[in-house]
Structures are given as C-alpha cells and as structure tokens.
Design a protein that fits this description.
The structure is a single chain. The chain starts with a helix and ends with a strand. It has two domains: 132 residues, Arc Repressor Mutant, subunit A, CATH 1.10.10; 125 residues, Beta-Lactamase (2-Layer Sandwich). It is of the alpha+beta class. The longest helix has 24 residues. The strands form two sheets. It has a six-stranded antiparallel β-sheet. Strands 1-3-2 form a three-stranded mixed β-sheet, with helices on one face. It binds zinc ion. Zinc ion binds next to helix 3 and helix 4.
C-alpha cells in the first residue's frame, strides 16, 4: 500500500470539497456531493460504510452509547459532562467524515486492509481525512495562528493552545480531540493528551504526539504528577512543572506542561 500516495489523494479530495467552505462544514452536503446517503440503523453497533462498490451508504448506530470508534472503546462518550446532544452530533460528524474517507480509499482502488498493521494505516488515513475535511487547511492555519513559535512564555503559550483548540472545536463543530489533532498538525511543537481515570491511576488514552508517543502511559494518583492532576477542578487550566514528568519516560523532554479538567476528562498540553 502506497501510504504517502493515498494520503495525498485524501488531502486533495478534502481540499477540493471543503477547502473554500465556511465553518462548520456541512457533512450532509459533502455526502450528497459524493452520492452517499447517511442512515441510522439498529443493525450496526458502530459507524460503517456499506456497499461501496454498488450503492454506498454510511450507517450510524441508533444507540448513542455505542457510537464511539472501536479503537477508543472505554472512553466516556461525553467527556464534557454537559451538552451531550451537541457532543453526540459532533461525534456523528467525525464518524461520517471518517467513513467517507474509506469510500474515497475504495474509489482510489485500495482493497481491504491486509492484516492488523494495514488496518490501522487505513484508520489513520481516514482520521486524517476527517480532520482535513472538517477543518480545512487555510481555516485550520488561521485558527492556530495565535500559537507562538518560541517558548519564552511557554506556560502562557499552553493556556493559549487550550483556548485555540476550544475555538477550533466550537467553530468547526467537531470533537475536542479532532481539533487537538488538527492543532498539532498545524503546529507540531504542541501535543495534546487525553486521560481518563481508573481507580488508582490516570491513563493516557489518546495522544496527538508523533508515533502515538505516550499512549497507554499510567500515572498513579499517588505520584507527584497524579497528586497535582487530582487538584484540578472542572474548567481549571493549570501549568505544571515539567520536572513532574521526569518519572514517566514517554512524557519526558518537554519544555512546558499544562493540564485542564473538563468533566470526567483530563487533558494535558505539552510544548515540545
Ligand atoms: Zn474506519
């Protein structure tokens, strides 16, 4: 599989379709352009593209509790703890855009993934396509412009980065994590982590760092970093001393760190 070539095909398709559009991009209009209806179905537990060769259709599950991508099975559906209807709709938009990516890969002559490695490459390509489609390049660049290039005020910069991602999330009407990935795409010196808490530890569930760095990292609540994170209340954004990360090798070598708690979710921004 020519990963780079297919990436370019998907990027060009996203730019062609939504590059000149205003935010939020209408997913229905985009699907109509590609001739793909969207339907909710009792028959599926996850979003799916069916019949790509004859009569393509994108199915969305009926039940909101099953709507998360399979690769993120244990994340709470609504990390914000509020506005769940809107969160669900943002997820739906992401899922539909992702499935459209599969259709475009199919139309570009890409067969079914061969083995696990290729499956994840497909998934990654379709996630990238969803980001490019819902946050087109020039708008993503414009929204991330406030991010500074140097780190004289690194901590302040991280607070700005949280605000930039929040703005991308609401303007593009996408899940926070999609906006965070897009911000990292545009400004690779920023990375974002999404953590969940399970009993005695926090765990990194999603990372925007290259090569999924830090994925799965466990931070015991009793560690110094864990104790600092526990102090955060909903809506807090707090800078953390980078030294707190030293005992976690996958998180080491960062210039600055800030954390934000939103409902049950914990987000960390890193300056690399
Ligand atoms: Zn997929």
């Amino acid at each position: 599989m020519n990963f780079v070539g297919y990436r370019a095909i998907l990027y060009e398709a996203a730019e062609r379709v939504s590059g000149a559009k205003a935010l939020p991009v209408s997913v229905r209009e985009v699907c109509a352009y590609f001739g793909v209806p969207i339907r909710r179905s009792e028959a599926t537990r996850k979003a799916a593209l069916i019949h790509p060769e004859t009569a393509p259709e994108i199915l969305l599950p009926k039940s909101p509790s099953t709507i998360l991508p399979r690769s993120w099975p244990t994340l709470p559906y609504n990390l914000n703890g509020n506005d769940s209807e809107r969160c669900r709709e943002a997820w739906d938009r992401y899922l539909v855009a992702h499935e459209l990516g599969h259709l475009l890969l199919f139309r570009a002559g890409v067969g079914r993934p061969f083995g696990r490695g290729e499956y994840y490459l497909h998934e990654e390509l379709c996630d990238s396509f969803a980001r490019w489609l819902l946050l087109p390049e020039h708008l993503a660049q414009e929204l991330t412009r406030p991010l500074p290039c140097n780190w004289t005020q690194a901590t302040e910069a991280l607070e700005i980065s949280f605000r930039v991602v929040a703005k991308m999330e609401s303007r593009a009407f996408v899940p926070w994590i999609l906006a965070a990935f897009r911000a990292s795409d545009c400004s690779p010196s920023f990375g974002f982590l999404l953590l969940t808490q399970a009993e005695s530890q926090y765990r990194v569930r999603i990372t925007t760092l290259p090569n999924k760095r830090a994925i799965g990292t466990r931070i015991p609540l009793r560690s110094r970093l864990g104790q600092e994170l526990r102090l955060l209340r909903h809506g807090d954004i707090r800078p953390l001393a980078p030294e707190l990360l030293i005992e976690f090798p996958s998180l080491a070598n960062v210039t600055a760190v800030a954390a934000e708690r939103v409902g049950r979710g914990l987000r960390i921004a890193l300056a690399l």
